[in-house]
Structures are given as structure tokens and as C-alpha cells.
Amino acid sequence: MKKSYVIAAVLACALTAWVLGGYYLRISGKEIAETAENTKTLPAMKVSVRTQEAEPVSQVVVAQGQTEPNRTVTVRAETMGQVSEILAEEGSTVEAGDIIVRLEANDREARIARAKAHVREQESAFKAAEALGKKGYQSQRQADQVFSSLQTAKHELQEALIELERIEIKAPFEGAVLSRPVELGAYVDTNGEVATIVDNDPLVVSVQIPQQKVANLKKGQSASVHFATGQERDGKIRYIAARADEGTRTFRVEIELPNADGSIPSGISAEATIPTGSVLAQFLSPADLSLNEAGALGVKTVNDKDEVEFHEAQIVMSDANGAWVTGLPKTARIITLGHGYVQVGEKVQVAEEENSDGGADMPEASAQLATGSVTEPTAAQ
């Protein structure tokens, strides 16, 4: 009796398992079929694309610096004496050879008179010696001694004349009197400082260029300079240091520019803009940029097969409207909407922007150099 109950229970369990197994198999098969069907019918992601051409962007090196005089010299006295006359005031302009200060002559003129008399005396003695020598009354040695005395007298006269000239202390070149520490009546020693003259034409602008940028510069290269006074001038590079500063690892570069009117003083701040060439770049809005899985900044584009590509981009210039970047094809189909939802290699549906006609709807891309507006964008390195 108990055995029949056990058999009946086993049969009931088996029947229940068979019914439930068929149900789940039907449900599972239906889901798999539906999933496969949905996968086959899922449409490609639609993205908005703008086609545009790369444009030349001028690259420049911008550096801060200061103006310096072309030449600076401290004028010193070559003789001693008391200042008797001042002919150049501080801040005045002098020409080469202009007298700045004159010293008292004292006995210098009297020394010249004595030296001249001595020369005449020796000349007479030499003529007499020559006459006696021709007649055989005087030896050649005696004649040579008289000639030597004449030459010594002439040298002494020349020294006296030079000493008199030295009382007039003159400007060595055209420039401005920066300082004049002596006053009327002051006593000046030999080698004493009399004045400092600066030459501001041409004017020199010295800047420090980072070691990464100095290879882009060369002598004679054009540069534009904007001064703290609001003035602007064009010039050329005249000097590039052969060695970097040990502390800053920067190179001193000098830019020479005309300053004939002297309107730009030395010692003021200046900003130099040096063009170094141009590069083809695309103008993009910040929304067009994205990051790849490695965290690199770039742009997603669509190739001619409507497949997504990623191009790492380098920003060469930026402003409030967007950025000029390199690294894209010359003609690029840039994804402007939907780039965050597609992956590299994925095939997409392309919707061209209405204003996409082979060039981007970009602002007038021009940069203000020190000389004014230019016709093409400029990348400040």
C-alpha cells in the first residue's frame, strides 16, 4: 500500500517538472528570438556633422621684457682740474664731440708757450750742427745728439697741446645726458666721473625666451613691440644668446627698433610678438571637443564611410569664442551633436548641418599683433 503511494508521488513530481520545463523553454526561446530580432533592427545612431576646411594660423612667440639703450657710457676726465664751465645739463641731448664740461686751463697755456720756445731753440741748434758737420767741424755723433734734443722738444710740445685739449670733456656719441654728477667749481681728478650718456636710437628691447621656443627664432627676424606707454614699433632680432641663463633656463634675445625722435625712453616695460610661421588649424567651439578613454583631448569626426574616428588635438590659439586646433584632416567632418553617444569605429547616420558648405561658421579669426590687425588668426605660443 505504501509502495503505491510512493510511486504515485514520484509520477506526480515528474509530470509537474515536465510541464514547468516546457513553459520556461518556451519563454526563454521567445526572449532570445525577440532580442536577436531587436538587435537586427536597431538603427544606427544619428549625429550632426559640420564639414569645414583648415585655415592657416600664424604662430608667434610672445615675451615680456624692457627697453634698453643701444649704448651707455660713463664719460670720465682724462686730466685733473676745477670745473670752469658746464655746457650740457642733465636730460639734454648732445651730438658727438659736443663739450659737456670745461676745466680751468691754469698754467697749461704757459707750458705750451715754453714748449714752443724750446722747439725753436732746438731747431736753431740742429741747423747749426748740420752746417758745421758739412764743413767737418763737428762729428756725426754730436749732430745726432742735437737732433735727438729737437725731437724731445717737439714731443713735449705735443703733450702740452694734448693736455690743453683734455680740459674740454666731450660727448663720445650722440645721445642724452642721463646724469652729470659734477657742478660748477667742483674739482675733478683724473679718471673722475663727469657724465653718463645714453644712446636710445636705435632702441633695444631685451626679452627672455624659454628654451622650448628659442629654436624658432633667428637673427634678422621681424618682431612687433607694444610698450607700456601705449606706443607700438616694429623691429628685428639682432642678438640671441648662445647660452641659457642657469637659473631660469631662458635665452636673452634683443630686438632693435628705430627711435630717431627719442619718443620711447629706455627702461620701460614692453611686450614683444615674434611671428615664427603658420600652421593649418580648425576652429572649434568648446562643445566640439571631447576626451578619449586615455584622457587625451580631441575631436570625433566621421570618415567617408560614415564611421566614427577620434583625432587627438593640440590647441594653438583660444579665445572666448572657441579654439584653433591642429591634428585633424585638412577637410574634416566634425561631429557637433551626439559625439558623446558614439564610439570609435561605430557606423552612424549623418545629418549635415544646414550651414555646412565646406567651411565652418567661424568668427572673423584675426589676432591683434603689436602692429595692428592681421588678416589671418595668430597663435601665441
UniProtKB/TrEMBL annotation:
Family: Belongs to the membrane fusion protein (MFP) (TC 8.A.1) family.
Organism: Methyloceanibacter caenitepidi
Record-linked Pfam families: Beta-barrel_RND_2, BSH_CzcB
Protein name per Swiss-Prot or TrEMBL: Membrane-fusion protein
Region Disordered, residue ranges: 351-381
Domain CzcB-like barrel-sandwich hybrid, chain residue ranges per copy: 71-199
Matching InterPro entries: Beta-barrel_RND_2, BSH_CzcB-like, RND_pump_MFP
Residue span(s) of domain CusB-like beta-barrel: 205-274
Gene3D superfamilies (alphabetical): 2.40.30.170, 2.40.50.100, Helix hairpin bin
GO cellular component term, pick one: efflux pump complex
One function term, GO molecular function aspect: efflux transmembrane transporter activity
Database matches in NCBIfam families: RND_mfp
Compositionally biased tracts (Polar residues): 368-381
Domain of life: Bacteria
